[in-house]
Amino acid sequence: MSAGTNGKSSVALVGVGRMGANIALRLKDEGFTIAAVYDTRAEAAAKSAAETGAKHVRTLAEIPPLADVILTVVTDDAAMYAIFAESGDSLLAGAAGKVFVNTATVTPAVHVEIERRANARGADSLEACMASSITQARAGTLYLMAGGKRAAFERVKPVLEAMSSSLRYIGPAGTAAQVKALVNMVMNINTAGLAEGLGLGDALGLDLTMLREVFAQTGANSRVLETDGLDMQNREHDVYFSAAHAAKDTHIATALASAIGLALPVAEATAAQYDRMIALGLGELDKSGIAELTFPSRSSTEVRS
Q1: CA dist 101 to 1, 107, 151, 242, Å?
Q2: Strand order across the 33-38 sheet
């Protein structure tokens, strides 16, 4: 693998929205050359290119010749298949010798198929599932779970270490995505449960600050209470992880369960709540916005985001 003048791999990013743009800035800070950026939204790519000194490319096929490691930060299964299309404009063009690092939370089988497509072109593919948010992306403190061939993981380990404070190799392609689906399922269930607890407390006339403090010192405590509790109380739903993504990710987990005949009624109910947010036009609120469904005194027109 070629390297920059400082011996570090050159990196390109596909998808420079909130997460991708902050990852690019972090890697630049750590001495990696950001060789190119691409996004379907040209304005986002132009902004990231200006911030990192990268080349703003307009086609996917331009990316592989420019970088050793290609990080993709896209939204869903369809987007993954599109950027790794087997014909037309695609990252697979001229991909031999490159390593793709795919961070999207998608169906695990997608990562398996993308690895197959990459290997067929002489490239490697690795999933690097992120259990963190925008702030951690910028600070380089992501929790990363990697899946794919161990040799591919070792090749890009310096890049992954620069992005993360916790890095774990899980196993073959698809396994890290399975773990990530379970992480997000449990997180989303916790978020929905907290919203119901606070909503019921509000309906009973309880002081919500007191209630959160009691939750924090008892079995009701959770990481979600720390990150989302005050936001639910204050109706401040600046988006770090959207309700739409919460719905998608919970459905990934329930589909995995359905495929093996396992019933997950709590996860199904949680997915239904996030689906309801989307139907009400609240899908781009943070996942904490699920509290808008459980506080009987609230109407969505008063939400602050």
Answers
A1: 15, 16, 13, 23
A2: 55-56, 33-38, 10-14, 69-72, 99-102, 124-130, 142-148, 164-171
What domains are defined for the chain?
Answer: 10-172 (3.40.50.720), 178-302 (1.10.1040.10)
Contact 99, 70 (CB under 8 A): yes
Say if residues 278 and 248 touch (Cβ distance below 8 Å): no
Q: Tokens representing 76?
A: 């869903």
Q: Alpha helices of 71-204 — where are they, by DSSP H?
A: 77-83, 108-120, 134-139, 150-163, 175-203
Q: What percent of the chain has pLDDT over 90?
A: 92
CB-based contact 163:144 (threshold 8 Å): yes
| Range in 65-74, 105-114, 119-128, 131-140 the model is least confident about | 131-140
DSSP per-residue codes, 119-146 = HHTT-EEEEEEE-S-HHHHHHT-EEEEE
Instruction: Provide the whole-model pTM.
Output: 0.91
Give the model's confidence band at 111: pLDDT under 50 very low, under 70 low, under 90 confident, else very high.
very high
Decide: 265 and 286 in contact? Cβ < 8 Å.
no
pLDDT band at 231 (very low <50, low <70, confident <90, very high): very high
